[in-house]
Amino acid sequence: MSSLFITFEGIEGCGKSTQIERLAKRLAKAGRDVVTLREPGGTPIGETIREVVKHPPGTEPISPDTELLLMNASRAQLVQQAIRPALAGGAVVLCDRFYDSSLAYQGYGRGLDLAKVQQAIDLAVGDTRPDLTLLLDIPLAVSQSRVGARRQTTGEGQDQFDQSGDAFFERVQAGFHALAKGEPQRFRIINANQPPDPVSDEIWNAVKDHL
């Protein structure tokens, strides 16, 4: 069976982790070999970078340029160590975020030049591109409510992105929609502002045509 590379995108609290787990189980039942990954992270080097990016040491925030380069350093390692070998073996790879997040967060959100962001992405990923990108779409107010409830449950604190403010996430949200509009053949916008079961069904309907 041929390989398939599926990425999940969206603002915080959109349900990517839950839906990746559900889709992985569904694909496994269908007899497919499934590999699940996340960004930043997914490799020992990437997980170390993830901690630095989300919880930078010291009192000064990471500059947008540094954030961009660190994200793509983690991405380059993930592509070479995990994604390409899995695809070469015929697996379905499900990745929690990929390069669209850099365009949305560091480009639209932080205000970096999109051409510069794309150059960093191109260096990191080469010709490794998603076959399908699922944008889990929720209103910003729902994102804030879900993230707040998750913090109360887990006790986790804010990371560097959480501290960026509402206007930042509005720009990120707009960025994702602009990216989806620009590549309608790759993106599928999923209404994630509903219970998990119908979201899973929407995702499956988008994925099964690619199998």
What this model shows, in words?
There is one protein chain. With 211 residues, the protein is of the alpha/beta class. The protein has a single domain, classed as Rossmann fold (3-Layer(aba) Sandwich). 56% of the residues lie in helices and 13% in strands. A five-stranded parallel beta sheet has the order 2-3-1-4-5, with helices on both faces. The longest helix is centred in the middle third of the chain and has 25 residues. The termini are close together. The mean pLDDT is 94.
Give me a quick take on this structure.
This protein is of the alpha/beta class. It has a single domain, classed as Rossmann fold.
Give the helix/strand layout.
Layout: E1 4-9, H1 16-29, E2 34-38, H2 44-54, H3 64-88, E3 92-96, H4 99-109, H5 114-125, E4 132-137, H6 140-154, H7 166-182, E5 187-191, H8 196-208
Helix pairs in contact: 1-8, 2-3, 3-5, 4-5, 4-7
